[in-house]
UniProtKB/TrEMBL annotation:
Stretch list, region Disordered: 1-54, 795-834
Sections of the chain in a coiled coil: none
Protein name (database record): DNA 3'-5' helicase
Domain of life assignment: Eukaryota
Matches recorded under PANTHER family: GENERAL TRANSCRIPTION AND DNA REPAIR FACTOR IIH HELICASE SUBUNIT XPB (PTHR11274:SF0), RAD25/XP-B DNA REPAIR HELICASE (PTHR11274)
Subcellular location(s) per record: Nucleus
Family stated for the protein in its record: Belongs to the helicase family. RAD25/XPB subfamily.
């Protein structure tokens, strides 16, 4: 008699991973990966936004599942079942050759677990990143989630439900459960059925199903928006998939060739079943070459938004595509990648999702910091070869984008202009590239004459491509406005983390497009494209006097106490000393600007926060980059996104924004681009200093969730070896600690704490606008505080001269900085001449 296999006990490597996570991520940093209770309800999508989402809930309704389970499975439960509760999947029969198949599907929640050690893992991963959302990718088991948006994206790159279910079935250890099949079918049946195509400046509604178009023509809203006098429905053949050349690729060929090149042949020793699976995957790919006929009718330009809205109401979300190769109405831009530019395999892969069927699809590409999003954007521009508008978060990024275009492509410098508060240039030819900021375009109210003229120019023409840099950062209302005022054929959103702490992330799906590609951070680190990072959480016990005060304080004061905890200060001092001696460049992040200044001044380090003037910022950043005596920089929240930071190899976080996963990821991103990443055994370091037994520990584990899901393991350090022997260790005597505590209490009592946390949204506006508002009450100087505090308690601040001021004084006499200044001056002149 054949032995009945139990699914719950056969997910290979599960135990191993569990063990790993216990040893490497103790305490609060336990990964949420396997067995996580995440459900669709907890994703970033809300029900009201998307009809299809309702279908998910219905299709994957747990009650529905449970009733099925009881009916069909009652008998299968055995003596061990009660250990698994709702997670007893023993009723699912495994396929006889399940060992060769890398996936397991959770019928309750649509989770897909991938054995990343399987020989088929690479293929399976490619497939899964196309159809599902990566949820967690630690060493051995990866978790993906099927969501309406991920399936929408899959349809947008040309897969149909049959393909998705077939490949899933081939790779799965169990037959694809019926509710998962239904879910895939119900989510995908309407997506992509209707496309909005701009061809020769005319908008068309296009579909491969003529009946669908007839239905739309009869609709009371859409019917009247058809261009009167135009042919009812025209029929042409669909473009062939993969006929496109993406510049910068090795074979400079599109999807099919790129995919074929990457298709790994079965290794020696792999058995026949695996070869079968390879063969099926390849067969499925071949299907995509079939060209269908497409039918279309023309619609009026003004009707586009109404039609999109109406189609959504009808449950037929419109897919936007740009047939740029047949766009003869817009001038062609003379741009190509330089022959030396070779895009990397993941950059190529992300672009092949965008240009999969020879047209440009709008959507989001997610790559970790430093992985080269700029070059992806530039290559997209070189592929489309039409007018491009790029939106950045700061005027500094604007300058960088322009420089990168000049570095990687053969664009004529006159064809790429910038639009910022200081520069309102236009390109000279009949088409070109404009690099600007969200703020410049989204700004409401009266503009200066030049700015208005520039806006008229931007609004008065059609763009081939709009690149939205750092889309996760731009306030939702801003990108909504930008997208509505600029007429563009395609949109590409670039980001490192599709995370927002507000609920606006799903807006991106509809305002820009679905996620087209998300890279695996660990894979990129292993391949040396980004740095390997050691993450550690350092537990700092509170001193008795601080903890006593903590227990008797309100939450605002408690947070000040856990930041100013003398043991945390000592840990920070020790780590700075240790890493400076190793030759690292260190950034210490503190959201709390009071703590930032106290720490930096006591340790005699430079610091930058919202109120640091632009010239001082530049001076400090230059010193941090080039001066071997300035190796540590203290940074407030503005360093998360708004500053172009020089390279660092060690990060220390002393205060953060509650449980913000995005901030944690952004901060880690600051060290991923370390140039030394390819040195033998090189690691960058990321420390989070956490005061033990305080609420900060809870926030800390929440913050780490995203990075843990990317495969990072946070080690917990409970004692820093040798800290006691550090010369000049601060706060070693009870008197010093008491003095610090009384300063903290005075600061809290002074009511000056309102300005301790900078408002990043404000900064977003401020940096771009170039005019810095002074925030009331946020200015803290020793003088002001000592007046409030009675003087003697601020003794340490008075004694320690600010390193920032020292730098300012030294600047004049340092020949190196004279040279830097001269070079800058030259560059500025050269740019002006350009
Ligand atoms: N294909 C490539 N070949 C060589 N160098 C590359 C390639 N792609 C990117 N780079 C280099 O990698 C570095 C990081 O690129 P880039 O600044 O575009 O990253 P990013 O993803 O935009 O990072 P961030 O999110 O921090 O802005 C740059 O120095 C860039 O020139």
């Amino acid at each position: 008699m054949p032995v009945k296999r139990k699914a719950s006990s056969t997910v290979k490597g599960a135990d191993k991973t569990k063990k790993d996570s216990v040893t490497s991520t103790p305490g609060p940093a336990t990964p949420r990966s396997i067995g996580s209770s995440d459900e669709y309800e907890s994703s970033d999508v809300t029900e009201s936004e998307d009809e299809a989402h309702k279908r998910v809930k219905t299709a994957l309704d747990i009650k529905e599942y449970k009733s099925k389970k009881v009916g069909s499975v009652g008998k299968a439960r055995d003596s061990a079942s009660h250990h698994f509760g709702d997670h007893d999947f023993s009723y699912l029969s495994l396929k006889p050759d399940h060992d060769n198949r890398p996936l397991w599907i959770d019928p309750q929640k649509g989770r897909i677990i991938l054995e990343s050690f399987s020989p088929l893992a690479t293929h399976a991963q490619d497939f899964l990143t196309t159809v599902a959302e990566p949820a967690s990718r630690p060493a051995f088991l990866h978790e993906y989630k099927l969501t309406p948006h991920s399936l929408y994206a899959a349809v947008s790159v040309g897969l149909d439900p049959k393909d998705i279910i077939n490949v899933l079935d081939r790779l799965s250890k169990i037959p694809v459960p019926d509710n998962i099949r239904n879910f895939i079918t119900s989510c995908t049946q309407s997506y992509g059925k209707v496309k909005l195509v701009l061809k020769n400046t005319k908008h068309y509604l296009e579909s491969s199903d003529p009946e669908m178009l007839q239905r739309l023509l009869k609709d009371e809203v859409i019917g009247p928006l058809r261009v009167q006098g135009a042919e009812d429905i025209t029929t042409t053949s669909a473009p062939k998939m993969g006929a496109l050349v993406i510049p910068g690729t090795k074979n400079a060929a599109g999807v099919q060739q790129a995919a074929a090149e990457q298709q790994k042949q079965p290794q020696e020793g792999e058995n026949v079943n695996q070869e079968d699976i390879f063969a099926t995957l390849n067969e499925d790919d071949d299907d995509e070459d079939d060209a269908d006929a497409v039918h279309a009718f023309e619609i009026v330009d003004e009707g586009v938004e109404h039609i999109q809205k109406r189609c959504l109401e009808l449950g037929l979300p419109v897919l936007e595509e740009y047939d740029f190769r047949n766009d003869d109405a817009n001038a062609t831009l003379d741009i190509d990648l330089k022959p030396t530019a070779q895009i990397r395999h993941y950059q190529e892969k992300s672009l092949s999702k965008m240009f999969g069927n020879g047209r440009a699809k709008s959507g989001l590409i997610v790559l970790p910091c430093g992985a080269g999003k700029t070059l992806v954007g530039i290559t997209a521009a070189c592929t489309i070869k039409k007018g491009v508008i790029i939106l950045c978060t700061s005027s500094m990024s604007v300058v960088q984008w322009r420089q990168e275009f000049l570095k990687w492509s053969n664009i004529n410098p006159n064809d790429i202009a910038v639009f910022t508060s200081d520069n309102k240039e236009k390109f000279t030819g009949n088409t070109g590239i404009i690099v600007t900021t969200y703020n410049m375009v989204a700004q409401k109210g009266k503009r200066s004459y030049d700015s208005q003229k520039m806006m008229d120019f931007l609004q008065g023409r059609e763009w081939g491509l709009m690149i939205l840099d750092e889309v996760h950062v731009a306030p939702a209302h801003m990108f909504r406005r930008v997208v509505s005022v600029i007429k563009t054929h395609s949109k590409l959103g670039l980001t490192a983390t599709l995370l927002r702490e507000d609920d606006k992330i799903s807006d991106l799906n509809f305002l820009i497009g679905p996620k087209l590609y998300e890279a695996n951070w660990m894979e990129l680190a292993e391949q040396g494209h980004i740095a390997r990072v050691q993450c550690a959480e350092v537990w700092c016990p509170m001193t008795t006097e601080f903890y006593q005060e903590y227990l008797n304080s309100n939450s605002k004061k408690q947070s000040l106490l856990w930041i100013m905890n003398p043991r945390k200060f000592q840990a920070c001092q020790f780590l700075i000393d240790y890493h400076e001696k190793r030759g690292d460049k260190i950034i210490v992040f503190s959201d709390n600007v009071y703590a930032l200044q106290v720490y930096a001044q006591k340790l005699k380090k430079v610091f930058i926060f919202g109120e640091t003037s632009n010239s001082e910022r530049l001076r400090i950043l230059e010193n941090f980059q080039h001066n071997e005596n300035i190796n540590t920089l203290f940074l407030s929240k503005i360093g998360d996104t708004s500053l172009d930071l020089p390279e660092a190899t060690c990060l220390i976080q002393i205060s953060s924004h509650f449980g913000s996963r995005r901030q944690e990821a952004q901060r880690l991103g600051r060290i991923l681009r370390a140039k030394r990443r390819n040195d033998e055994g090189f690691n960058a370091f990321f420390y989070s200093l956490v005061s033990k037994d305080t609420q900060e520990m809870v926030y800390s584990s929440k913050r780490q969730a995203f990075l843990v899901d990317q495969g990072y393991a946070f080690k917990v350090i409970t004692h820093l070896q040798g800290i006691e022997n550090l010369p000049d260790l601060a706060f070693t005597t009870p008197l010093e600690r008491k003095e610090l505590l009384s300063n903290v209490c005075i600061h809290d009592d002074s009511g000056d704490t309102a300005g301790d946390y900078e408002d990043v949204d404000d900064l977003f506006h401020r940096i771009d606008g170039g005019k810095r508002k002074k925030k009331k009450g946020a200015k803290r100087t020793a003088g002001t505080l000592s007046e409030l505090a009675g003087g003697q308690d601020m003794a340490y601040v008075e004694q320690n001269k600010s390193r920032n001021k020292e730098l300012k004084k030294k600047k004049e006499s340092n020949p190196f900085f004279k040279k830097v200044q001269r070079e800058q001056q030259k560059r500025r002149l050269a740019r002006d001449e350009e």
